Amino acid sequence: MTDPIADLLARIRNGILSRKSVIDIPASRMKRAIVEILKEEGFVNSVTESKDGPQGVISLTLRWDGQNRSAISGLRRVSTPGQRRYVHADALPKVRGGLGTAIVSTSKGIMTDRKARKERVGGEVICEVW
User: Fold this and answer.
1) How would you class 14 by CB atoms within 10 Å of its CB: exposed for 0-12, middle for 13-18, buried for 19 or more?
2) Closest listed residue to residue 47, CA positions, set 23, 79, 77
3) Is 129 exposed, middle or buried (0-12, 13-18, 19+ CB in 10 A)?
4) Domain 75-129 part of CATH 3.30.1490.10
5) Do domains 4-62 and 75-129 have the same CATH topology?
6) What does the pLDDT read at residue 1?
7) pTM here?
8) 77 beta partners
9) Mean pLDDT for each 10-residue chunk of the chain (130 residues)?
10) CATH class of 4-62
């Protein structure tokens, strides 16, 4: 697998399209940080991790509303292995006019665009969620 973050986003997108409630993803520290941000922002209900196999598995419980619609309307990978996208703190993107979240990898760790703007740090824009 050349792009594990794109694989994570594709698994979430496919789980939403197939109306799954729980999605299992191979674990890594980067993926764990991204799904924790999704949990903090209210896009998923819960995140659990088990030590199955050599790598471990992260289980996401997706969030659905009363009309059986997902809390996640869209996911987009911004920075790819072939073309990285770095931005300064002044140029951090606002996703859907502030209704979505950009996940940014900074020197202070992986965080949302709002937190990076508040701490005045830039970095690599990993993905956008709305």
Assistant:
1) exposed
2) 23
3) buried
4) yes
5) no
6) 77
7) 0.92
8) 127
9) 94 96 96 97 96 92 94 96 96 94 97 97 97
10) alpha beta
